Amino acid sequence: MAVLEIEDGTVAEAGAGGVGNGVSRRKLESRRKLLAAARKLFVERGYHETRPQDISREAGVGHGTFYLHFEDKLDCFLAFTDEAATELEYFLAQHLHGVARFEDAIREILRGIFEYSATHPGVLAAALTDASVLSKGGDIGKKMPTTRWAEGWAVLIEKWKASGEAAADIDSRLAGHLIVGAIKQGGAYAARDHLDADKVLNNMTKLFVRALENR
Question: What is the pLDDT of residue 21?
Answer without folding.
Answer: 67
